Each structure stands twice: as structure tokens, then as C-alpha cells.
Automatic annotation (TrEMBL):
Gene Ontology CC entries for this record: nucleus
Family as reported in the entry's similarity comment: Belongs to the EXO5 family.
InterPro entries noted in UniProt: EXOV, PDDEXK-like_dom_sf
Name of protein: Exonuclease V
Source superkingdom: Eukaryota
Molecular function terms from GO: single-stranded DNA 5'-3' DNA exonuclease activity
Gene Ontology BP term (one): interstrand cross-link repair
Length: 244
């Protein structure tokens, strides 16, 4: 079963941090006794060229993060108490007319936010964990022709190592660092490129110069508010919405 290009919002905690992501596609194999979903992400390429290994590494990380979110949510109870607290939400708040009508169309008898969250938890409980394989697809923007499609294995150890490294920055344990050489493609999207010593060829330092950084790379965004530092190098595939 395939649901092409229907973004499926995933929300969950990774190492104590709330993370939001949108899974492009979930494929459910029909010919397996116990079908487990295959998570798929499709990247659109402006030029009909293949991505670099560094870009693919970022995409692999993104998909592994989605798998982690999916598997955690279907395996455990969604931490609804933390969710309300972190996002400052009142579980008893009444749904707006639009949301109420939408939930009714889905067959849900939900009146409050808590009703919706409970439906979400019950639904997740019935879902199987995802496959250990993940699929990345690259399409040419002009005609949507397939440039590359490849399946790779989830690597839980590598993923955890990467997450912990990023969280060290987010939690203030380490300073931001410049991008590595093979990641310098990110600089073309960076609003600090004109003052950065890497791109401007000067010695000027950007550390501590930013109060708010909003980056957009393709359909990816990351928001960080911290007066002490900026992060232009942590993986941009996650929208980080709250620090605990
Ligand atoms: S601050 Fe921006 S321009 Fe400088 S190395 Fe990082 S991404 Fe590149």
C-alpha cells in the first residue's frame, strides 16, 4: 500500500527533546504475514544530478530520525503530560470549528484537544514498528523523473551518536563549529555567509553574534532561540520546537 506525497506528521521525543518531522511516504507491503511499514523520503533535485555523499548522509539521518519517532510512538505511550506542558497547551481546550469538522469527517467524536490526543495514542498503539530498511528517492524537479532510489539499513548506534552530538550544542555543552569541507554546500543557504570566515576568507568570528536563526533548506527548517549562540551546522532536518 502506498500513500505517495502525503506528509505524515510525526511528533515525539528524542533523548528528552521534542522533535517534529513530516514523513513523505509510508509503504505497507501487502504480501507479508506481519506487514511492517517502509518509511520513504523523496528529495526533489533542481538539477538532474545526484546528491553528494554528505547530502545523502543528511537525508539518511533525517529518515533514521523519522524511524526513531515512529517506533517510539508505536512502542510506548505518547507522553501526553509532557506534550501539554512543553507546548503550553490546555488539554481541555475546545477544538475550533474547522478542526472539529475535520475530526468529524475522519469519524472521530472529539470535542477537546485531549480527545484528539487520546485518539492519536489509541491509533499508534495499533500500528506495527517500521522496517529496519529505509528508502531515499531523488526526483528531478522539472519532470519528476526518478534520479536515484536506494534502500539502506537503519543504524541505531550511528543515529544516537549524531543526535547526542547535536544535543551537546543545543544544551550549551559545546560551541558551534564550522562545517566540514564536504558539508560546505550548506554555506550557500546561510544568512551569515557574508561575515563568516569560511566563506568571506577573513578571520572574523560569528560566534555569539546571533539572537535568532531561522534556516530553510528545501522543505527543511530549524528554529533556535538562544541569545548566546547560533547554530548553523547542526543537522537541519529537524524542526526543534522545545527544549526541556
Ligand atoms: S556560518 Fe554559514 S557560511 Fe560559515 S561555515 Fe557555517 S554554514 Fe558556512
Amino acid at each position: 500500500m502506498k500513500f505517495p506525497h502525503q506528509g505524515i506528521l510525526k511528533l515525539g521525543m528524542v533523548e528528552g527533546e521534542w522533535v517534529v518531522g513530516v514523513i513523505d511516504e509510508i509503504r505497507m507491503p501487502l504480501n507479508e504475514a506481519v506487514p511492517r511499514p517502509l518509511l520513504v523520503d523523496t528529495k526533489t533535485r533542481y538539477k538532474a544530478t545526484l546528491p553528494t555523499e554528505a547530502q545523502m548522509r543528511n537525508s539518511r539521518f533525517q529518515l533514521m530520525c523519522y524511524k526513531y519517532l515512529w517506533d517510539c510512538i508505536v512502542a510506548d505511550n505518547f507522553p501526553s503530560g509532557d506534550f501539554y506542558k512543553c507546548f503550553d497547551l490546555d488539554p481541555q481546550s475546545t477544538l475550533s470549528e474547522d478542526v472539529g469538522e475535520y475530526s468529524a469527517r475522519l469519524g472521530l467524536r472529539a470535542k477537546t484537544l485531549e480527545d484528539v490526543v487520546n485518539y492519536f495514542i489509541d491509533t499508534c498503539y495499533l500500528l506495527p514498528s517500521s522496517q529496519e530498511k529505509l528508502m531515499l528517492r531523488y526526483e528531478y524537479q522539472r519532470d519528476h523523473s526518478l534520479l536515484k532510489e536506494y534502500v539502506f539499513d537503519h543504524d541505531a548506534n550511528w543515529f544516537k551518536g549524531q543526535i547526542l552530538k547535536f544535543l551537546e550544542f543545543w544544551s550549551g555543552v559545546r560551541e558551534a563549529s564550522f562545517v566540514s569541507k564536504d558539508e560546505q554546500w550548506k554555506c550557500q543557504f546561510c544568512k551569515y555567509a557574508s561575515i563568516c570566515s569560511v566563506t568571506a576568507g577573513s578571520d572574523c568570528s560569528y560566534r555569539g553574534s546571533s539572537t535568532l536563526l531561522i534556516r530553510h533548506i528545501s522543505n527543511i527548517s530549524q528554529i533556535k532561540r538562544d541569545p548566546r549562540r547560533m547554530d548553523s551546522h547542526a543537522n537541519p532536518n529537524i524542526l526543534k520546537v522545545c527544549e526541556k
